[in-house]
Write a structure and sequence with these properties.
Length: 345
């Protein structure tokens, strides 16, 4: 009898692990988790390799939504979603046309939770913001860190040094003057050093951009090891007010260029400014401030660059207006999934 029960017992155990993993996603995404909740999560995750694997699988589910885009590109054959949540949330979703979107609607809330929770960042962050949220943090030295949407920072302050790690997103720093303690912001492999100034650092996953509003900032990439001083060898450039530079992980800073400060800091006054971006990039910028995901299903080669000015409180209207000016249709599947498609395709 015991041998006959083992397969069912294993199935039940797997379902229990999957249910627990999904429950942790919901709990961690529902707000600011307490230190006790984070400690409990770490204990559960590290108790069994299956727990970590189940949790990682849920994180990957959101990537399956990307298959939607390929399904409506002209002349592209339908493709199935790449992964599915075990335990019944989504099973074998075939991407074959707009008719499947109703079936996806019930899964979008779970998928959005999976996309929005970056557990390594969550566990390291001292301060963070949710999607569409801005927050100002007073740092231990009196400097200010203004966090933009979906951003996180970790603080490393000592008697001799001030360092902030930008773990995700974008932040503007107004640095309190202290010549004896450099102020560093690390992002990807790079580091921005200032004594007393105002500057913005944005990390997009692929690259980081530093924009100086006031004073002078030295940008070094790749970052110097922790045992070396901020002046240790490395590829570096010095930025003055109104200048910007970008770098990629593991690479040196790119060429220094002029910065459009009103556009770069528009979010500080509650608006978004897009200047001459391709349509797909413009939608991605708007998507940073909205919950869920925007999926563009159209051949973008025929569209001119986009310029948009809009209030962060009225992005849904701006999105619809932008789509209408390009002859595109907006389909809101749920609050967490918006399809923008070419009705003639």
């Amino acid at each position: 009898m015991q041998a006959m029960r083992e397969p069912r017992d294993r199935d039940e155990a797997t379902r229990d692990v999957d249910d627990a993993a999904q429950d942790w996603f919901l709990r961690l995404a529902s707000g600011e988790p307490s230190a006790e909740e984070l400690a409990s999560f770490r204990k559960w995750r590290d108790a069994d390799p299956r727990h970590r694997a189940a949790y990682d699988e849920i994180r990957e589910v959101w990537n399956g939504i990307g298959a939607l885009e390929a399904a409506w590109v002209p002349a592209a054959p339908p493709r199935p979603a790449r992964r599915a949540v075990r335990g019944g949330a989504v099973r074998g979703v075939a991407v074959r046309g707009l008719a499947v979107l109703g079936g996806l609607a019930a899964a979008c809330a779970v998928l959005f939770v999976a996309a929005s929770v970056d557990v390594p960042v969550l566990l390291r962050a001292d301060h963070r913001t949710g999607v569409g949220e801005q927050r100002t943090i007073t740092l231990p030295d009196g400097s200010l860190a203004h966090l933009n949407t979906d951003s996180a920072i970790a603080l490393h302050f000592s008697d001799g040094h001030r360092r902030v790690s930008l773990l995700r997103g974008e932040a503007m720093f107004e640095v309190a003057k202290d010549p004896d303690r450099p102020f560093d912001v690390s992002a990807l492999d790079g580091r921005s050093t200032a004594l007393g100034t105002a500057f913005v650092v944005r990390e997009s996953g692929e690259a980081a951009t530093v924009t100086v509003a006031e004073g002078t900032v030295r940008v070094t990439a790749p970052a110097a090891p922790e045992t070396e001083t901020s002046g240790s060898p490395g590829s570096s450039v010095t930025l003055t007010a109104g200048r910007r530079v970008s770098y990629r992980r593991g690479g040196p800073p790119g060429p220094v260029g002029a910065a459009d400060l009103p556009s770069a800091t528009a979010w500080r006054s509650g608006s978004i400014a897009i200047d001459g971006l391709p349509l797909a990039d413009a939608l991605a910028e708007i998507d940073r401030y909205r919950p869920g995901r925007i999926v563009l299903l159209a051949d973008t080669a025929r569209f001119e660059p986009v310029t948009v000015r809009a209030s962060l409180q009225a992005l849904d209207g701006a999105l619809k207006a932008l789509a209408a000016t390009h002859g595109l249709t907006v389909i809101e599947v749920t609050h967490y999934l918006t399809i923008i498609r070419d009705p003639s395709a």
